[in-house]
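INFO  loader      accepted 1 record
INFO  loader      residues=552
INFO  predictor   begin
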Amino acid sequence: MVKNKQVPSRKDFKVLIVMPKLILTTKVNYNYMIPLGLTYISSAIKKAGYNSDCLNLNHREGTISEILGKELDKEKYDVVCTQLVGGPNYVVTEEIRKCVKEHSSHPKFIVGGALITSEPELIFNSLGLDFGVLGEGEITIVELLDCIKKKGDFSKVKGIIYKDEKGKTKVTEKREPIKDIESIPYPDFEGFEFKEYLKHLYCNQQHYNQSYDYPVPYPIMSSRSCPFQCTFCYHSIGYKYRERSIEDVINEIKMAIKKYKINIVALYDDMFSFKKERIYEFCEKIKEINKELPQKIKWYCQLSVVGIDKDLLKTMKDSGCSVISYGFESMDPKVLKSMRKPIKPEQIDFAIRSTLNEKIGIQGNFIFGDVAETKETAKKTLDYWRKNCHGQVGLGFIQPYPGSAVYLHCLKKGLIKDKLKFILGALEGKKALNMTDKMKEKEFGELVKEVPRLVDNYFRHITPLSVKKDKGGKRYKVKVNCPFCKKNIEYGNYNLQKRLLYRRVIYCRECGMRFVVVSSLMKLSGSFPYLKSRSEKAIRKIRSTMSVRNIK
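INFO  predictor   done
INFO  writer      dumping tokens
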């Protein structure tokens, strides 16, 4: 990436970068995972010398039109940018677009993200956008802003979708992946009120937050894309895997320690590293940093089971690794091959056993419904899961994300008849599609019913030893007895949906095993199907306090 110098002439062109609501509510909300893509876009725009402001809708009370309308009234913006992070976020983007288009200042509206990259014409035209940024956006957004400002030729800007003078939708030449990702400026967290966000986190919010009562996590990407090309994945930033040097990653972490007093590093990489020496180097550097800190840095990453060995895991644990996310997917070789997953069942088994032996938490799933799935292959995976996983590995079904190979398979097979309807509804994960070639609908339907029942039965559920009000009365101190290592542990700054009606997954700080903490009422309801159904309905209502239409 060419490093942009400060260009004074760009200062008279004003840009508003909007972080969308990531949970559908009109209330202030801090319970979300920051979309790193938008923070990188903001840093690129600011580095290029553009006069830009950031607006985090999650941190404002009110409807989208109220919040954004007030912001547009304050300043005359030439452009408004946002990110479409997924199907459920579509209605939020639609409302942002409506507010922008109806405002008297008439700024141009730009949207980027994985969904518009995977289905550019569909999303661009259905939302009625001015421009869409496709793929990696740090270079593209600056060139596009320059072109808008100068009223230039948009066909020469790689990686965008727009309408030409005749109103015809045009997609320009694909943007090449950025080779030197170290040239990209660090993400602009500050613009989106990151310090305020950190103040409101609680210990059981994300799996990597649970190491401390008062977590201060820093999300970071040390690489981009993934060396694998699994059929259920879609990499909107391209399939060329690129890594930053560990030195550069450590420099960013040191900056975050100084600026935000972080105690957790969350590596958002699709694949932290395929090279053992790179992981060892990271562990060594983190250990050096921890020698100087009163509260040690804990960290989380995603890895492949390929190449995992006991010494590597021991080194990772010793350096503060608290949770590893793996892609297990299946215990059947035929299904793994169909998924283009270059791993073997014995490697999965070794990774699960060895990671748990080192007392590192596991974040991972077996997912069903691949094209090659059969009743027999599903049984093989479930039999292994029952016997060996102790409730530490989740179960679910493949979702055909737009752009992925299984999505294209579903289109060809006629399982997805209306792309937009699917994106807006089915993509939320409420329905599993039978995309298999050999499973009958009845067999697949039985599997869909069996999976949640097994999860409910095999995950360890416990009630707390005590629950007390924490600081200010808004959070709690929850004391539990781990059902695995039998240690009593107290978690402060713990969030409960309702004092008498809650269920939350948590990791033991001693042994790394996860279990479910439930209220006495919730546990009692498990013995009574009707009461359980009513309790589940109440929890869903608590988690989603309002309907989509009310955010507008």
